[in-house]
C-alpha cells in the first residue's frame, strides 16, 4: 500500500490487475488422480492456444508436464467432456491412456520408455465414423481400456449413440473399429463409464434418456460381468424419472455407494447390489449436497477409502472436504484455508487428493493424509501475482425476491488499497449471471472479478433460482420458468443493492455467458434495471435451439426449462431475445466463439440482424478458434478489455490504459 490513499471516482482507479494477467490465470486444475503413488492432473495453458496439459507430480515432489504442445488432453463427449485420461503404475514405468482434443482419438503413452511417443488406440474419424471417448479405466488384466464411446451415426449433431466399450491396449482398434468391444446394450442415450466391483464380478453405471437431464432423473444400473468380459442381467438398483443419481462407486467391502437426491438433497447412500432397490441406507442424511449436476462424465464428489471411511464433498452453497465414517455417521471436516472443493476427488491408501480454492486462493491440488488429518498443497500452488489487497473481500448474502423467494448471492464491493472514492458517491455494479443454468457461482478467487473491483466497479454474483447447491426444490424453481425466475432474481438483487445505498442505481449492468448470456439478454429486453449488458456465447433463439440448433446432450433441456415446444410453442417466441429484440434499448456487447457448437454463432447473427438500424449502441466480437467457453489468452484479454470499455462509455468512467471499443448503432 502506498504512503497515502488518493481520492478518485469509482471506475477511474488504476490497478495492477490488467486483462492479460487475469487471462493468464483463467481456469483451474482438473481431473486429479493417482498413478501408483504419484499424483497427476490436467491444467489449463491459456498462452498455448488454450490447451489442457497433463501434469505429473513425481514421488520426489517434482512437477512436470507430460506432453508438449500441441497435445491437448481433453474429451468432447457430450461436448462438455469428461475425464480424459487414466493411468496405471508398472515396474517399467507408468502407462497412460488419454483423449486428444484435436482428433478425439484415444492414445496410449509410456512416458518413461526411451523415445516413447503416444500411439493411437482408436480409429481416425474417417475410419471410425466419428468417435469420441471419455472416462477411461485401464483393465490391465484384460489388456483393455473400458470407457464411454460416443459414436456419430449421421450428419446431424443429434445422430449419435453411446455405449460402454472396451478398447484393446495393443492398438488393434486403431485401424479396425470391429476390434472395439461394446459392453452395454445401447438401450440408453447417455451413460457413465462402468465401475467394477472389487471382486470383478459386477459393473455399475449411471444412465438416462431424453428428455431428462442428469439432474432431473437417472438410473443406477448393476450388471454381472461374465468371464468373457461382457455384461449380463442389467438391473436398476436406484434412481428414476424424478431421482437423480450423480455418482456411484464400489466400497472396498463390495457394497455400492451412490449419491442420490431422493430426499430433496444429494446425499450419500449404500446398498447391497444383490438386494436390488431394497435396503439402501442413507449414510449421513443432511439438508446438504454431497453431489452436484453431472455436466462431465467422471465427476467425483466422494471417494471410498480402504479403511471403510469415505472422503466426501458436502455443504449448502459451497462444498468442503470431510471424512465420513459410515459405521457411526460421524463426519469430520478437513482443516485448511480452502472453502470450495471441485468434483475431482481420488483416493489411494490413506491419501485423498482433489482441487480446492477460496476467496483468497485460486484452485490448487491438495492432498490429505487421513492418518494425520494434515492437508497440504502438492500442485498448481497458488501464488499471488499482485498484492492481495487488490482482491475483493466478498460477502455471502441472501436477498428477498418475488413471492418471498430467498436468493443467494456473493457481493464483491470495490477494493483498492491506494484509492478511495469521494464521499457521497456510489459505485457502479455489474450483476453476474452464471452459466448452466443448472450450476452455481463458486465463492473463489477470480481475477476477472478483481479486474473490475480493483478499478472501482462492484460485482454481484447471483445464484438465482435454479442454481445448484441448495437442494432440489431450489433447482426446480426454474422448471418452465427460464427467462422469468432467473431474470427476476437478478433484478431483485440489483434493485436491493441500489435501494440500500450499496450501488449507484443509474450505473447497473448485467453480464453472463452461455445460460448467463441468455439471462443477460432477456434482462435487457424485459426490465429497465440495467444501463447496459455483456452477452457472452448466449442462447438467444429458443425455437432454433430446440429444433436442431444445438448438440445432443442439451437438445431436450428446454422441455424442463421452458416446457415442451409442441405444447407451449408461444413461450419460445415470447421469451427469446431474438424475437423480443425491439424491447432492447440499452447498449450491449456481444461476444461469440465461431467454433461454438453448443450456442452456435448463427443465433448471434440473427439477433444482430434484428438489432440493425435501431440506434442501440452495441459491439460484436467474434473469435475464430474459440468454442463454448473462451480458452485462449488473447481472446480472454480482448474480451475483458472490451467489456470494461463498454462500462466506461456507458457509466462515464475513465479507467487508465484502456482502448475504447467502438460501439455501432
First and last CA, distance: 43 Å
Query: Helix- and strand-based class?
Result: alpha+beta
Number of strands: 40
Largest β sheet strand count, sense and barrel closure: 8 strands, mixed
| Major sheet: arrangement of strands | 32-33-36-35-37-38-39-40
Strands, helices and their partners?
Elements (H helix, E strand, L loop, with lengths): L5 E2 L11 H6 L5 E6 L2 E8 L5 E7 L5 E3 L19 E4 L6 E5 L6 E4 L9 E2 L4 H4 L2 E9 L4 E9 L7 E9 L12 E2 L7 E2 L3 E2 L5 E7 L10 E7 L5 E9 L5 E6 L5 E5 L6 E5 L9 E2 L19 E3 L5 E5 L5 E6 L4 E4 L6 E2 L4 E3 L2 E8 L2 E9 L4 E6 L15 E6 L5 E7 L6 E2 L8 E5 L13 H7 L4 E6 L8 H4 L9 H15 L8 E6 L1 H12 L5 E5 L5 H5 L11 H4 L7 H7 L12 E6 L7 H11 L6 E6 L9 H19 L14
Helix pairs in contact: 5-6
Task: Describe this structure as you would to a colleague.
The protein is built from 11 helices and 40 strands. An 8-stranded mixed β-sheet has the order 32-33-36-35-37-38-39-40, sandwiched between helices. Strands 14, 15, 16, 17 and 18 form a 5-stranded antiparallel β-sheet that branches. Strands 27, 28, 29, 30 and 31 form a 5-stranded antiparallel β-sheet that branches. Strand 4 (51-57) and strand 5 (63-65) form a beta hairpin. The model has no long low-confidence stretch (mean pLDDT 95). The protein is globular, with a radius of gyration of 25 Å. The chain has 665 residues and is an alpha+beta fold. Helix 5 (485-499) crosses helix 6 (515-526).
Amino acid at each position: 500500500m502506498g504512503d497515502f490513499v488518493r481520492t478518485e471516482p469509482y471506475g477511474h482507479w488504476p490497478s495492477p490487475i490488467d486483462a492479460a494477467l487475469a487471462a493468464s490465470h483463467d481456469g483451474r486444475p482438473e481431473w486429479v488422480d493417482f498413478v501408483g503413488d504419484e499424483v497427476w492432473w490436467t491444467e489449463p495453458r491459456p498462452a498455448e492456444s488454450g490447451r489442457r496439459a497433463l501434469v505429473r507430480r513425481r514421488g520426489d515432489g517434482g512437477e512436470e508436464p507430460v506432453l508438449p504442445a500441441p497435445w491437448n488432453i481433453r474429451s468432447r463427449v457430450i461436448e462438455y467432456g469428461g475425464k480424459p485420461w487414466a493411468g496405471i503404475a508398472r515396474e517399467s514405468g507408468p502407462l497412460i491412456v488419454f483423449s486428444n482434443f484435436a482428433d478425439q482419438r484415444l492414445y496410449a503413452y509410456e512416458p518413461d520408455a526411451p523415445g516413447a511417443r503416444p500411439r493411437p488406440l482408436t480409429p481416425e474419424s474417417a475410419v471410425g465414423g466419428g468417435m469420441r471417448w471419455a472416462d477411461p479405466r485401464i483393465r490391465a488384466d484384460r489388456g483393455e481400456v473400458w470407457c464411454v464411446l460416443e459414436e456419430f451415426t449421421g450428419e446431424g449433431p443429434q445422430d449419435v449413440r453411446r455405449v460402454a466399450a472396451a478398447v484393446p491396449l495393443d492398438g488393434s482398434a486403431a485401424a479396425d473399429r470391429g476390434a472395439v468391444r461394446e459392453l452395454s446394450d445401447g438401450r440408453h442415450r447417455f451413460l457413465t463409464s462402468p465401475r467394477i466391483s472389487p471382486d470383478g464380478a459386477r459393473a455399475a453405471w449411471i444412465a438416462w434418456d431424453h428428455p431428462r437431464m442428469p439432474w432431473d432423473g437417472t438410473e443406477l444400473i448393476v450388471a454381472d460381468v461374465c468371464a468373457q468380459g461382457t455384461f449380463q442381467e442389467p438391473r436398476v438398483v436406484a434412481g428414476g424419472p424424478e431421482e437423480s443419481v450423480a455418482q456411484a462407486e464400489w466400497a472396498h467391502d463390495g457394497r455400492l455407494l451412490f449419491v442420490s437426491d431422493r430426499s430433496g438433497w444429494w446425499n450419500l447412500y449404500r446398498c447391497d447390489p444383490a438386494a436390488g432397490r431394497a435396503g439402501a441406507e442413507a449414510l449421513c442424511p443432511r439438508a446438504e449436497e454431497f453431489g452436484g449436476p453431472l455436466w462431465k462424465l467422471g465427476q467425483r464428489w466422494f471417494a471410498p477409502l480402504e479403511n471403510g471411511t469415505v472422503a466426501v464433498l458436502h455443504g449448502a452453497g459451497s462444498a468442503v472436504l470431510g471424512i465420513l465414517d459410515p459405521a457411526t455417521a460421524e463426519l469430520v471436516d478437513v482443516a485448511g484455508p480452502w472453502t470450495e472443493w471441485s468434483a475431482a476427488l481420488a483416493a489411494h491408501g490413506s491419501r485423498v487428493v482433489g482441487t480446492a480454492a477460496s476467496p483468497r486462493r485460486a484452485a490448487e491440488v491438495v492432498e490429505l493424509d487421513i492418518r494425520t488429518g494434515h492437508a497440504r498443497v502438492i500442485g498448481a500452488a497458488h501464488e499471488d501475482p499482485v498484492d492481495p489487497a487488490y482482491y475483493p473481500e466478498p460477502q455471502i448474502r441472501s436477498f428477498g425476491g418475488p413471492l418471498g423467494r430467498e436468493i443467494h448471492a456473493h457481493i464483491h464491493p470495490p477494493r483498492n488499497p491506494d484509492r478511495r472514492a469521494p464521499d457521497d458517491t456510489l459505485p457502479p455494479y455489474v450483476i453476474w449471471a452464471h452459466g448452466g443454468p443448472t450450476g452455481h457461482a463458486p465463492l473463489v478467487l477470480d481475477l476477472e472479478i478483481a479486474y473490475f473491483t480493483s478499478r472501482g466497479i462492484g460485482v454481484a454474483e447471483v445464484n438465482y433460482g435454479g442454481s445448484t447447491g441448495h437442494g432440489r426444490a431450489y433447482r426446480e424453481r426454474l422448471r418452465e420458468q427460464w427467462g422469468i425466475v432467473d431474470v427476476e432474481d437478478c433484478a431483485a438483487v440489483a434493485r436491493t443493492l441500489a435501494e440500500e445505498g450499496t450501488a449507484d442505481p443509474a450505473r447497473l449492468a448485467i453480464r453472463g455467458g452461455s445460460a448467463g448470456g441468455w439471462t443477460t439478454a432477456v434482462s435487457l429486453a424485459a426490465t429497465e434495471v440495467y444501463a447496459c449488458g455483456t452477452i457472452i456465447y448466449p442462447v438467444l433463439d429458443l425455437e432454433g435451439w430446440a429444433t436442431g440448433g444445438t448438440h445432443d446432450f442439451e437438445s431436450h433441456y428446454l422441455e424442463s426449462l421452458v416446457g415442451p415446444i409442441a405444447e407451449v410453442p408461444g413461450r419460445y417466441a415470447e421469451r427469446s431475445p431474438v424475437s423480443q429484440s425491439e424491447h432492447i434499448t440499452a447498449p450491449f456487447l456481444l461476444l461469440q466463439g465461431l467454433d461454438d457448437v453448443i450456442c452456435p454463432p448463427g443465433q448471434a447473427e440473427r439477433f444482430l440482424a434484428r438489432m440493425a438500424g435501431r440506434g442501440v449502441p452495441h459491439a460484436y466480437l467474434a473469435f475464430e478458434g474459440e468454442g463454448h467457453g473462451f480458452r485462449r489468452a488473447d481472446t480472454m484479454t480482448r474480451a475483458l478489455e472490451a467489456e470494461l470499455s463498454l462500462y466506461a462509455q456507458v457509466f462515464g468512467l475513465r479507467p487508465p490504459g484502456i482502448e475504447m471499443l467502438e460501439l455501432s448503432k
